[in-house]
Amino acid sequence: MKEAVFVKRNTEKWQEYESTPAHDPDRLTERFIELTDDLSYARTFYPKSTVTRYLNGVAAQFHQKLYSNRQEDRNRIAAFWKHELPLLMFESRFKLLYSFLFFFGACILGWLSAAHDDTYVRLIMGDAYVNQTLENIKNGDPLAIYGGTGQADMFMQITVNNIKVSFVAFALGSFFSFGTIAILFQNGVMLGSFQYFFFERDLLLASILKIWIHGTLEISAIVIAGAAGLVMGHSLLFPGTYSRLESFKLGAKKGMKIVIGLVPVFIAAGFLESFITRLTLHPVVSSSIIIASALFIVWYFVVYPRKIYHQMTFS
C-alpha cells in the first residue's frame, strides 16, 4: 500500500482518537492496540516517514494514559482476559509460531538422539528417574511415579515449579532471545527423549493417554511463555523508531502480560497432574481431557485473538 493511501485511509480515525479521548479502559486499550498495529505497519513500509514519527508520538501518549491509572477493578480484569491478552497474542502470533517450531524441532532432536544412543535418556532424565520408571514397568504400572506423592503437596510443588519455568523462559528473553530459545530447546529435548523411552518399550500410547492429561496444558503454556520471551528479545534486537531502552520496556511489559495470563493455565495443569493423572481412567475419558485441553489452547491463544482483532479492525 502506498503511503498516501495508508494515510488517507486512517487519518480520520487518528484525528478522532486525539480529539475525542476514551475514558473507558476497554475502549482505551482497543485504541492503543490499533495504533500500535498502524505504527508497526508504518515502521515496516515507511520507516523514515513523518507518519511513522507521528504515530510513534500518538501511541506513546496513549501508552501513558493506559498505564497512568493502576486501579484494577472488575471491568479492567475482565477486559484483560476478553480483549487485551488475546490482542497481545495476535500481535505476537509469529513469535508464538517461532517458539513452537523451536520446541518441536528440539523434541525431534531428543527423540532421534535417544533412538541412536542408549545412554541418552539417562543423561537427560537422570539415573534415578529412569531406574524408578523401569522398576514401575517391571511391576506392571509404568507411570506409577505420578501417584507417589500427596495430592495437595504435589499440586503446590508442580504449579509453583511450572510458573517458575515460564517466568524463567520469559526473563531469559532479555538476552536477545537466546536464553528463551535455550529453555525451549532444553524442554523440547527432554520431552522428545522421554517419549522415545516409552516408545522403545511399546508403551507410547499408554504414556500419551496418561502424561498428556496434564501435559497438553503444561507444554502449551511453556511454548507460549517462550513466545513472551521472544517478544521481549525482539524488542531489543529490532527497536525500530524507539530507543533500544524504550523498546525493551514496551516489549517487557507485553511479554510479562502474556506470562501472567498463563498462570491459570499452569494452575489447571497442576490440578490435573496432581488429582487426575494418577487415576486409572478409561482411554475415552483420557482422550477427551487431552482433546478438550488442546482445543482450549488453540481457540483462546490462536483462533479467538484473530477473531477479536478482525472484529475491531473491520467493525
TrEMBL record:
Q: Where are the transmembrane segments?
A: 96-114, 163-184, 219-238, 258-277, 283-303
Lineage top rank: taxon: Bacteria
What InterPro entries is this protein classified in?
SpoIIM-like
Question: Cross-referenced Pfam families, in alphabetical order?
Answer: SpoIIM
The record's keywords, sorted A to Z, are: Membrane, Transmembrane, Transmembrane helix
Protein name as it appears in the record: Stage II sporulation protein M
Natural source organism = Runella rosea
